[in-house]
């Protein structure tokens, strides 16, 4: 009888939990639940309930993190914490962060609040984080081979940060804003076709692979003058392992070993290239360790360079396929304006690596709470929300290439317009921490989308089931 009662109670509890989870699939109910949770809970209970809401977003979005989950989370932040305040509480859905750090973090989500951090000339960075993973908990092979401290871990304005950025700007001509057309030849790797038949017949996974192969092939050619045609499958595999780690999902040691092996093949090619050799020599001449610096650069190229640019190209092509006639015409009329707008609405990187507060800070939140953040604690920024701040972008959800304030997007951390005015991609006081790959990724993503648009146009009118 007792055992029966226990089973019955457990079943009833599970059924109630499942029904509640089902109910929060309805957007209005989810928003009300999020309001209750973030207004009345704190500490561990907020952390647990916040993660249930995130699990709801992943279920609702069928796992599409870039194309949907980020937007759902951004909508919650704005509904709860209001644009005017711009700072809210964020529950990272990172098991790694939950085990090794704080369960609730301050989130800078409005355009002004994001800028406050990204333009801070002395912004602090936690030395031990790789986005939402604590580096000490990552297996060997995930971080760069010779030194786990990467640019993302260095405080803005520190001597080391400034010197490393100058090295990139001086020794990697492909990062420059302006390149003559003879310097970069866009090529299509063997096996990638963009005919209408191929695009309409491809699964989303198959199309993604073609887009990423095209990006990876040209990225390594333009950046290092290295041919990685034979390594494209491994680059794609590497990105598939790295992406969950960025979100703080724990990794196995065999995954670390596999990443190290794949990266070493690419690194080996780059060390033997003309660009790689000159880069290492210049680093040594400046009192740095050339091998460590080049290894860091290859690591970043395989992370933000390949993954960031690949995802932006893929998300843009997905948007184009929702209304091929409209979007291909818009693209053709001004490709750069089109891509800036695509990067505003589909930022492939959620924001910066976490920042570290340098002094105790109190945030008065729109939910009525006051959030105390102690010196050393981490905080996060969120470009998916900041880029849709109606205080800067009118009708922010509409796709309007060439819109007013088009250059104020924060997808590359500092506004495109501000960063463009720096003399080099090392940065300048007006834009101290823009992504050094801003202009390279823009040229590459435009060329890649142009190639696939050619195929899509060939099949107009296309069936729109993709
Ligand atoms: C669409 C593609 C890309 C996006 C959206 C993007 C975005 C970003 C963002 C938001 C940051 C700031 C991170 C932080 O300060 O913590 C960053 C940093 C960085 N990105 Fe990119 N990136 C892209 C492509 C690239 C490419 C192609 C490269 C070069 C191959 C690159 C190299 C870097 C480097 C070296 C940093 C570190 C800068 C620093 O910490 O000072 N990125 N990127």
TrEMBL record:
UniProt xrefs under InterPro entries: Cyt_P450_sf
Top-level taxonomic group: Eukaryota
UniProt protein name: Cytochrome P450
Signal peptide: 1-19
Secreted found in the keyword field: no
Keyword line: Signal
MF (Gene Ontology): heme binding; iron ion binding; monooxygenase activity; oxidoreductase activity, acting on paired donors, with incorporation or reduction of molecular oxygen
